[in-house]
Every structure is written in structure tokens, then in C-alpha cells.
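Sequence and fold
=================
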Amino acid sequence: MGPRAEIVITDSRWSRAARIVVQAPPQAVFDVVADPTRHALFDGSGMVEGVVVGPARLELGSRFGMQMRYKLPYRTSNEVVEFEDGRRIAWCHFNHHRWRYEFEPTGDGATLVTETFDGSTARFPPALLLINAYENNQVAVAKTLVRLKGLMESDTPKNGRAGS
């Protein structure tokens, strides 16, 4: 069995989170997450197909569009609403619930990465219960972190970028 993300118990009925240790420095992991063109490579929901429009590197206020698929293809527009370079990034779309990544150095060159699906910021958090968003995203954030770990820890020397 491969690596597994640890489920984090949140104090909110509207949030789901998981964490994993990645053998890479926080800034390197952050830089991959801050690059929307790479999101499909580590997305654990199976819904992200690629970036439609947006900057090469996200920052506070950045807007980016993604090609998605949930039974049928669709597009979504996101905005970065939390940003601390190398430490935290979060974005939301029209309903305002957030996907947040936090990066904490472990002291040995690795990074503890926590991803949170935060429905508390949604326009009406209980509505997300109707589409099973909390439980679906609990599974998705854990899978995403395992994929991110695999991406970061599989160096390809030919181009010098981790996980390329």
C-alpha cells in the first residue's frame, strides 16, 4: 500500500481537511500548487481537466478559469482569496467555499501540507449537504495530497523541476 494522507478533524461541520508530509521544501511545494497549469496533475477529485485562463503563478486576487468535468464538462472561474507566499493559498469560485493549502516546514527539509475544503465561507453552507460536498471533498483532499506527494517526490532530472 502506498502513502496515505491523515484525515484532520476540524472543529467545523462545514470543513474537511487532510494532511501529509512531502519530502520537499515548503516553497517548492507551494510553487507547484500556485501554478494552475499543474492542478490537473495532482487533483484527487478527478474533476480538474486543465486551466482555461489565468496567470502562470497565482497571487492574492488572481483569477483563473479551469476546465472541469462532473459527468459533463464545464468551466469554473476562481479567485485567490488567501495568500502568504510559501505558507498558505486558498481560492474560491462563485459559491465562495474555499480550497485552502497550508505549508509548514518540518525542520528536516520536508513539508507538512494540509488541504482544507472550507464550506463555512459558502453563501449557504447547508446547501452543500444536498450534493454531498463535505464527504466527497473529504475523500478528494486526501487523494489530492497523496498525488501531490507523488508528484513532488518523483524528480525528473532532465528538466530540473520536481514532479514534471
